[in-house]
Write a structure and sequence with these properties.
This protein is α/β, with parallel strands linked by helices. Among the domains are: 43-91; 118-282, 2-Layer Sandwich (Nucleotidyltransferase, domain 5); 403-487. It is 54% helix and 9% strand. The protein has helices at 2-8, 12-19, 43-58, 65-75, 82-91, 161-175, 192-200, 217-230, 241-259, 271-274, 281-296, 305-318, 324-334, 339-355, 362-389, 391-401, 410-422, 426-444, 450-462, 469-483; strands at 118-130, 133-144, 150-156, 180-183, 204-207, 233-235. Strands 1, 2, 3, 4, 5 and 6 form a six-stranded mixed sheet that branches. The chain starts with a helix and ends in a 13-residue tail after the last helix. Mean pLDDT is 79; it is low at 210-215 and 298-303.
Length: 496
């Protein structure tokens, strides 16, 4: 360290202090705090950002926020966060406003009430190691959604239609025909061969959709538990592939047999016994109708007392029938949406149902509601960015700040209020009213009698020749609020 100090021409104590701030890999123990040191966005900065973005688009390049933020940091020495750069671009119509999806999802549960009603099928890859050589297999497994019983499995080389049929055959041999099977969108599950097999045995095919907790999570949970119990399968002997297959088959047999003896949460019987309890013909017919209704429904995610009442009114008006669990979810979801969005969705829903009666479902209504609410959120964010960082609005505000400081007079205050009445941007209106109120309070300190100041304001407003009577009344109402702030509960910054 002493030689380093001599080479750097610094004292040994200073170099020692520097050294104590870093670990052995030269990483600082303490990083400087950057919060509260953000750069204020000025009109000049906005112009530079807008010009750089327009130049980028003019060259046919796609505007990517992260790269563009780094570009203006290096080339223009503008240090802003990616979010602030995005807001400036949105304000000047160079980037689309897009808010985060923050509404609760609406879904209809697939959970069923009788054993052997809905069967979940899925495949997963398991590996058996013989010495240092891995052999990979696909294990196709069927699990009953109601009881969580592991009813059948098959071990093959890859996930295929033959493996699915082999599992269904084994299930039917032990438990009979299920009402429906639940599977993912894989080609082996949705092939023509599978569809023909299911149609021949009157089994409904329910493809698992997104955003549904009771999708194919039943089988995925079973595989997770299986892999956690089995761990890594290794055989310390040199053998053929058939040995690896038989080892895996025996292990899975042991697992399914033992798992079916363990009680599933919420069930009074273990899966093995629960599967032996037959459902009546009426129960099976009712369950079959529920499955068909679910397949026909076009599920789309997304949905205080008035909003809930509005939802119930919609259901009664259209004569829709909803299961208790579905209605409960709809009541919870709709509270997060705006009343205006709900009303607009009702109008769109009525028109859609008039064109096609099959659309008369809660899922279809919440799909419309989600789209309309997202459009409203995006538009509100766009307006916010425009009011803060649009170059024209900022230029107008800068001109106002550069006006001579002789505005602390009756005429200057009235002139500021004229701008508030005539301005089109709400942000400009609020700033002009705020400035006029501040100047009025300073001017009141110079008057002994408030009546004289009020008379001067009345004369100044009356002398305005290019305003309508309605505009003069708006200005006078604001002046009265400035002069008598304690006698009114109305906000002086609100002007339409």
């Amino acid at each position: 360290m002493r030689e380093a100090a001599w080479a750097l021409h610094v004292s040994l104590s200073v170099l020692s202090d520097w050294n104590q701030g870093f670990d052995e890999k030269m990483r600082p123990f303490h990083l400087p705090e950057g919060r509260g040191k953000a750069t204020k966005i000025t009109l000049e900065m906005v112009k530079v950002i807008v010009r750089a973005a327009e130049d980028l688009k003019g060259r046919g390049r796609r505007l990517r926020l992260k790269g563009f933020t780094e570009q203006i940091k290096k080339e223009q020495d503008i240090y802003l966060s990616k979010r602030k750069v995005q807001e400036v671009l949105i304000a000047n119509n160079l980037f689309a406003a897009r808010t985060r999806k923050r509404r609760p999802r609406f879904y209809q549960s697939l959970r069923k009430e009788i054993p052997n009603g809905l069967l979940s099928l899925d495949g997963s890859e398991l590996t058996v190691w013989l010495d240092e050589e891995p052999y990979k297999f696909n294990v196709e497994l069927s699990v009953d959604v109601k009881t969580f019983a592991h009813t059948a499995f098959s071990v093959g080389d890859t996930e295929s239609s033959d493996e699915v049929i082999r599992v269904l055959e084994a299930h039917r041999r032990d438990w009979g025909d299920p009402l429906g099977i639940l599977c993912d969108h894989g080609s082996s599950n949705l092939s023509e061969e599978i569809r023909a097999y299911l149609k021949a045995h009157e089994i409904e095919l329910v493809a698992a959709g997104p955003y549904n907790p009771k999708g194919n999570g039943t089988d995925e949970g079973a595989f997770s538990q299986m892999k956690r119990v089995l761990g890594t399968l290794r055989v310390d002997a040199s053998s053929r592939r058939s040995i690896a297959r038989s080892v895996l088959e025996n292990v899975v047999c042991v697992y399914t047999a033992m798992r079916n003896r363990v009680f599933a949460k919420g069930n009074p019987l273990p899966p093995q016994e629960a599967m032996s309890v037959p459902g009546s013909k009426d129960q099976r017919d009712l369950e079959r109708e529920k499955i068909k209704d679910h397949i026909a429904a076009k599920i789309k995610p997304q949905a205080e007392q008035a909003k809930v009442d509005q939802l119930h009114g919609l259901i009664r008006f259209h004569g829709m029938v909803a299961e208790p669990a579905v209605l409960k979810r709809a009541e919870k979801s709709i509270k997060a949406y705006e009343r205006e969005a709900i009303s607009a969705s009702e109008e769109a829903f009525i028109k859609a149902v008039a064109r096609k009666s099959e659309r008369k479902t809660l899922a279809y209504f919440f799909g419309i509601l989600k789209r309309i609410q997202q459009e409203r959120d995006d538009e509100a964010y766009r307006r916010y960015c425009h009011q803060r960082y649009n170059d024209e609005v900022m230029m107008q505000l800068k001109r106002q700040d550069q006006q001579p400081r002789n505005t602390h007079s009756v005429e200057g205050i009235v002139s500021m209020l004229v701008q508030a009445v005539k301005a089109s941007a709400q942000f400009v209106k609020e700033l002009a009213v705020s400035k006029a109120q501040e100047w009025t309070q300073e001017l009141m300190e110079a008057y002994r009698y408030p009546g004289a100041l009020k008379k001067s304001f009345s004369q100044a407003v009356g002398d305005l020749m290019d305003l309508t009577l309605e505009e003069k009344n708006k200005i006078w109402e604001l002046i009265e609020q400035f002069l008598n702030p304690k006698t009114t509960g109305k906000s002086v910054t609100q002007i339409s």
